[in-house]
User: What shape does this take?
Amino acid sequence: MSTTEASIFKGKIEDYTIGKEIGKGAYAIVKHAIHKLTNKKIAIKIYEKVKLLDPERKGSVKREIQILKKMEHHENIVKLIEVFETSRQVN
Assistant: This one.
């Protein structure tokens, strides 16, 4: 992982209480979550790493993260708060 990629991986799954599923796509699910310290309600997108073994899919996820980071101040685009990974998932 490059330094640029590592800089976006800053959080921990343990910082959130994960709730029910609110959406599902081709290789990710979206769940309701609450940040434990701030009680802020968010949606968390969860990618199973096993589904990202295909380089094209993996590249697609990386591009999505990069684009969302660049668009963080756009009023009509969902805000990317943080990205983190576990041994099995990218969240």
Observations:
- Residues 1-9 have pLDDT under 50 and may be disordered.
- The radius of gyration is 13 Å.
